[in-house]
Write a structure and sequence with these properties.
The protein is mainly α. It has 19 helices and no strands. The longest helix is centred in the first third of the chain and has 30 residues.
Length: 391
């Protein structure tokens, strides 16, 4: 997802090697979101967001792109928590953490947002019955909220329907400094529990008090806290991590989510998405922990595939611009051809998606790479003890 999820650090800490399986998970989630939005852009989906007939049987798996953002959130907490576990706190301090995250996330987002507004006022401003209609009508108030990353606080229509997650994740990041602060006073486990409880309370408030709380996505705060806590515990409490059945938890979560998405109605899933986000998020945290600790070696090898690492390098750019490019492709290629919905999907998946991946790579070279934070300096090697020096 969002934003920083796709841009989170995948190193275990200062001066250490990258964990390529985390890159692979990030790339897979980004590609799935692209495929999902391409599917939703073809006219196979009715006004209630449902697909019928053989298309539902064959392509129903492509409906649930929202869960790709859930994967991003879990991955962000896990990736950002590892250097905290290694250092025993925020390696750069609070303001250093905020500055690094801002430099990583905001400049490419602002560039993509500006280009999106220009496209909206020129060629993307009319309704076409595609998924892009979620971004219409265009509103300057929405643009302003997007620029200041407050679209989860101010109820507006985003310039692009994917931009909601950038603001959500930007605010979710603040869970990590809070967790570290509480860790110093009450210990790691109570700190993780307290931060996760904030998300759980928000979910209960959304369900039983005021459904407007849902636009803050409180379930993501819960998932992020648990992901960061798991990553920190790998370093600070390895004996505890070793006793948790991570593979079983990951498998159980996968079974539940797949079964629900296969058997439940689309309307039921939409209504209960926050709870499914939690189940999936817990499963992703369990899978990431299992892979990182060597308990899922086959999955680790699969997600460490080199081409996925390449895509991960520009997956944030891919997330930021793919929706706009899908709509441009529809207007320029698909609409003039007057083809069937099935043919539209084929063109989206076989032509548009590969083309968008290439364009996203080029966009990242211009809009993302120049703003990457410099790598942290390796920690100084410990001084030798006297006996070593004498030897």
């Amino acid at each position: 997802m969002s934003g920083g999820t796709v841009g989170a650090d995948t190193r275990t800490g200062a001066g250490t090697r990258r964990l390529h399986h985390l890159d692979g998970v990030r790339a897979t989630a980004a590609l799935y979101v692209l495929v999902h939005h391409a599917f939703m852009s073809a006219h196979l989906v009715d006004s209630r967001g449902e697909v019928h007939g053989w298309q539902a049987f064959a392509f129903g798996w492509a409906q649930w792109g929202h869960f790709g953002v859930t994967v991003f959130i879990a991955l962000a907490g896990f990736s950002l928590g590892m250097p905290v576990g290694r250092a025993g706190g925020l390696p750069d301090g609070f303001w250093g953490f905020v500055k690094r995250r801002a430099r990583r996330i905001i400049p490419p987002y602002w560039i993509a947002l500006t280009l999106t507004i220009l496209l909206a006022v020129t060629v993307l401003g009319r309704r076409t019955g595609t998924h892009w209609d979620l971004s219409l009508p265009i509103t300057p108030k929405g643009w302003a909220a997007d620029y200041i990353l407050m679209q989860d606080v101010i109820p507006v229509r985003d310039a692009a329907y994917t931009f909601w997650s950038v603001a959500v994740e930007w605010h979710v990041y603040l869970v990590l400094p809070l967790l570290v602060l509480l860790w110093r006073f009450v210990g790691l486990a109570p700190a993780v529990f307290a931060c996760a409880a904030c998300g759980a309370i928000g979910m209960l408030g959304d369900a039983f008090v005021d459904d407007r709380l849902g636009r803050f996505f409180p379930e993501y705060y819960l998932v992020f806290a648990l992901a960061a806590g798991s990553a920190i515990a790998m370093r600070r409490a390895p004996e505890v991590v070793a006793r948790v059945p991570w593979r079983l938890a990951a498998g159980a979560a996968a079974v539940v989510v797949v079964a629900v998405c296969s058997l439940a109605s689309t309307r039921w899933i939409i209504v209960n998405t926050p709870w499914l986000d939690v189940v999936l998020g817990l499963g992703v945290v369990a899978a990431l922990t299992a892979m990182t600790t060597g308990r899922l070696p086959r999955f680790r090898r699969v997600f460490s595939w080199a081409p996925l690492a390449v895509v991960a390098g520009f997956s944030y750019s891919l997330y930021l611009i793919h929706a706009q490019l899908l709509q441009l492709f529809y207007l320029v290629v698909i609409e003039p051809l007057h083809v069937s919905p099935d043919a539209q999907l084929a063109l989206f998946w076989l032509v548009a998606c590969p083309l968008i991946v290439v364009i996203a790579w080029a966009f990242a070279r211009v809009a993302e790479k120049p703003f990457l934070p410099p790598p942290r300096k390796p920690a100084p090697a410990p001084a030798r003890v006297a006996s070593d020096a004498a030897a």
